[in-house]
Amino acid sequence: MLIKKAADIHSSEITDKKLYVNRRSFMQLAAAAGMGVMAGERLDAAVVTAAPHGKKLAGIKKSALSHTAEPPATWVALTTFNNYYEFGVDKGDPAVHAGSLKPEPWSIVVDGECNKKATYTLDDLLKGQALEERIYRHRCVEAWSMIIPWVGIPLASLIKRFEPTSKAKFIKFTTLADPKQMPGVKSDVLTWPYVEGLRMDEAMHPLTILAVGLYDEVLPKQNGAPLRLVVPWKYGFKGAKSIVRISFVEKQPVGSWELQNSSWYGFYSNVNPTVSRQRWDQTTEQRIGEFTKRRTQMYNGYGDQVASLYAGLDLNKNY
């Protein structure tokens, strides 16, 4: 099968890395901790460990837009249970393979329908920008979710800086696809490089950020270092990682997952539990670190802030 569904592993319960050295130990740990291991899940001998702690980010302010009713996921959960197909299709693959990524130095090309076309370093983009901590819900199509303490900057502030023209109706994000650093791009599971897009008003919304960190530290490699998109009311695959190009375009871009299967992965990809076109049941979700499921909220619980963006749009057709 082209797309693999990873196990609903409760990474927050992961303890000593020695327990992961072989299949038997993994299965024993799963049984003891009550973790779900799906039939057919690839359980190899790779040791899955949390990312090392990185450089502390200074001058971070708390954002009033944070969702703080629930505690964030642990560092272990956030850095060992990831979707990042450039490093493999299983949830533990990024933690195992992302060490080869070189996030420094880093440059981002800005082009298309804007007045400030240029190649910027990451420091160029962050200069003069106030870093904010945004505690957001993260919802994946496979029916798992997390609470994540992102550190980033509002995308709208950069958009204004790049001075898009009246022709700029959408923003296209292109990510790194280097087979020397990313073993997963040698596979044909997706068309590389990974591409995603937003409508201009979605990109300008105050909730949309470019993240550069987690838990007040630089973004770990397996989480999309050094720069990734975060759109909290959409499914997680809309969050392009390791961005190398930002393009202002007139026509709606086709994302990598939409290209792979447009009947499952639409352009908008708003969290909508009433749409049943996806392969996975969207009506419930399981928070990483919990053992019970909860009802999925429309727009991932951000409806009060973003529903107006889609007034008059048929969300059964435009999913």
Kindly describe this structure.
By secondary structure, the protein is an alpha+beta fold. The chain has a single domain (11-310), classed as Oxidoreductase, molybdopterin-binding domain (Sulfite Oxidase, Chain A, domain 2). 15% of the residues lie in helices and 21% in strands. It contains 8 helices and 13 strands. It has helices spanning 23-33, 75-80, 93-97, 122-126, 155-162, 200-204, 256-260, 303-306; strands spanning 61-62, 107-112, 118-121, 132-139, 144-154, 170-175, 195-199, 209-214, 217-218, 228-230, 243-249, 284-287, 293-295. Strand 12 and strand 13 form a beta hairpin. It starts with 22 loop residues before the first helix and ends in a 13-residue tail after the last helix. The model is unreliable at 1-45 (pLDDT under 50).
Low-pLDDT parts are 1-45
> Looking at this structure, what is the CATH superfamily?
Oxidoreductase, molybdopterin-binding domain
Order of helices and strands: HEHHEEHEEHEEHEEEEHEEH
Secondary structure category: alpha+beta
Task: Kindly provide the radius of gyration, computed on alpha-carbon positions and rounded to a whole number of angstroms.
Answer: 19 Å
Helix content: 10-25%
- Named CATH architecture: Alpha-Beta Complex
What count of helical segments does DSSP give?
A: 8
CATH class term: Alpha Beta
- N-to-C CA distance: 24 Å
Attribute tags:
single chain; 319 residues; alpha+beta; 8-stranded mixed beta sheet; 5-stranded mixed beta sheet; 8 helices
